[in-house]
Amino acid sequence: MSNTLIVNLKRFGDIFSSGHLVNSLKKDDPSKKVSIIIFEEFEAGTKALNLFDNIYTINREEILTLKGNDLFPDSMAINLFTRFIDLLQGKDFKEIINYSNDEISTNIVSFLNFNKNSNVVGIHYDRKKNVLFNSDWSIIFNDVLTTFPISPIHFIDCYHKMCGLSSLNTSKVLASNKKYDDIAKNNFQQIIKIKFKDLKDIKIIGIQLKTSNPEKDIPKKIIIKLIDRLKKHGKILPVILISSSPNEKEYANEINEVFKNSLISIESDFLALPSVMNNLDLLITPDTSVKHIADLNKTPVLEIINGSAPFLKQGTFNKDNCILTNKSNLTPKIKKFESLCPSSEDIYYSALFQIGLIQKEQIKLSPKILFFKVEKDSLGTRYDITNKELDNETQKSLLSLYISRYYIQSITESNSPNINIKNFSHFKIDLINEWAKEEKDQAFKAIKDLLETLKALISIQKNINNGKDFANSLDKIFNYCSSNFLISIPTLIFRAKIENLVDNSFDNNMKSVEGLLYEFKRNIQTLVNKIDDFNNLVNKIPNRKKPNIQKPVFL
What we know:
47% of the residues lie in helices and 13% in strands. It has three domains: 3-134, 3-Layer(aba) Sandwich (Rossmann fold); 178-389, Rossmann fold, CATH 3.40.50.2000; 429-540, Four Helix Bundle (Hemerythrin (Met), subunit A), CATH 1.20.120. The chain is an alpha/beta fold. The radius of gyration is 27 Å and the shape is globular. Helix 11 (246-258) links the parallel strand 9 and strand 10 (264-267). It is built from 20 helices and 15 strands.
């Protein structure tokens, strides 16, 4: 039996999301005991998951109260925090997973591991505050996914890779309460009998009203129009989902009044929510913790992105789930006050498709709205675009997204993935050629700067006073880190490794830098090769020709 500790000092959504990893850890080793550190205010929801063998909590509010009060010295807050950490010092954790990867979590993980030999997953520090990575996947999670404009890898998939596990074929994680299951099923059956004359093929669609951030909520006007459309369909029962919060109850009542209080409103806590979801044919939800519970429960999800959201990093996870988002979410900059929420019509037709009532060709979407379907490949979660008409900017962004996945797998794993050309059947050939040229031009520029850096390195090894040229050359390379081109990915990996060299010897460090520069060069060449492979595949697809039918010759 081995013990694993997960440090997860984030919110409900991230805690629920970690359930996929916990499930995989226990499937890999059924005897494994998994514990978690969280902030105390998230304890009730974490217990409801029934996944963790031990839950350790930090009272953040008490620490912040002491820290922010002039009557008390800061040392009291520090002592309170360290007392909690001291309680864990005696525990024997064979593995510690830094799920948060922030400053506080990294310090906790490092402190717990200073005098032990735990296998640390994610980043941690040595005693000199040098950053240590357990694998290249840890660098990708900490440096690439946080910087590159479009995230190639889902967070859940990256955590699995960091732990040496597969995120494919994840099973249902949540075990619902049989008592709640029976009550929910019976109540839904009774409601359907009352609401519909023809009881055959009735679909139940749940609509999550609120998130913890009002900017992410689906606007009330859109929800009202959506519910009206669903009610008029004749075969759909829309129900609204809320928590026990007084504000949410009031909000639900305001919406219900528009429909003369005829709507079904379901209030449930985290313990009863899976039983409710077991009866839904689809959950329509903004980016909220309820979405993560639905994913753990294998409930079909249509995620609605309003405003800026990292859907490529933490979007709905299960195969065949779908996401509606504005195309602005694929670009680094979003205009302030820009209206980004899909319309009620966008959501309605997407929902009908997802529950099998219309074909994909019948989906009607607003010009700026993108509809993604979750698929799985050897890296895990992939978001496939279903729109047939895409502007050039969106096509280029998606090309970078898809090819970056193949590239990352090529440099992190021994196997080289195959490119599925079917995913690009509706992309313009001329635009793909233009995109490939732009990406390769940036890569060749980086190689030129890399060679200049190697020359400067040789010069500094001969004469230490030549360090200025070397530093300037490195700065030119690091500028590619903020690039929107694919070259930023190998550059970010190179920077992470070179900034955290732990040997203090000048000669040893110079040898390490030289080795990293040659590794960087190989990674750039791999990038160019991947772009070429893809570009050649696309250009080899024969154009459709009209049948060669000859006119008969009559004598």
